[in-house]
Amino acid sequence: MYTFQSRRDFSELGSILSLGLYGLVFFGAVQMFLPFSDSLEFIKSFAALLIFSGYIVYDTSNILYRYRPDQYVIASMSLYLDVLNLFMQILKVLSKNEEERNRKKSRKDRE
After folding, report:
1. Are 28 and 85 in contact (CB under 8 A)?
2. What's the average pLDDT block by block, 10 residues per block, for the chain (111 residues)?
3. 50: which residues sit within 8 A by CB, 6+ positions away?
4. How far is CA 100 from CA 6, 57, 111, in A?
5. Considering only CA atoms, which of 65, 48, 49, 50 is closest in space to residue 12?
6. Any transmembrane segments, and where (predicted)?
7. Which three-class secondary structure string do you get for the chain?
8. What is the C-alpha to C-alpha distance for residues 80 and 52, in angstroms, rounded to an integer?
9. 49 and 92 Cβ atoms separated by less than 8 Å
């Protein structure tokens, strides 16, 4: 919605978002060998939320200003994947919150 209202071209966000995505991939690879703490995992998930939200704005801007009408398949797929990744990150953050709540509740029940 913001992209439609602002009439700005957000193509300059592409390099910043790509760098952020490469950082997420790097931290994911490091996490396979050195597990992160819960708080660092939450920060990584929150950063991923911001990156994929930025990708939605970036790809919407590309749909408005870069893609031709005959490129509707690639445009819709890029936006679909952004929304899918954002949804998966939201689920990850919510499940971590639920796990933490259940862990605190089980500690109280033991006492």
Report:
1. no
2. 69 91 93 83 89 92 86 92 94 81 75 66
3. 20
4. 39, 32, 17
5. 65
6. 13-34, 46-65
7. CHHHHHCCCCCCHHHHHHHHHHHHHHHHHHHHHCCCCHHHHHHHHHHHHHHHHHHHHHHHHHHHHCCCHHHHHHHHHHHHHHHHHHHHHHHHHHHHHHHHHHHHHHHHHHC
8. 11
9. no
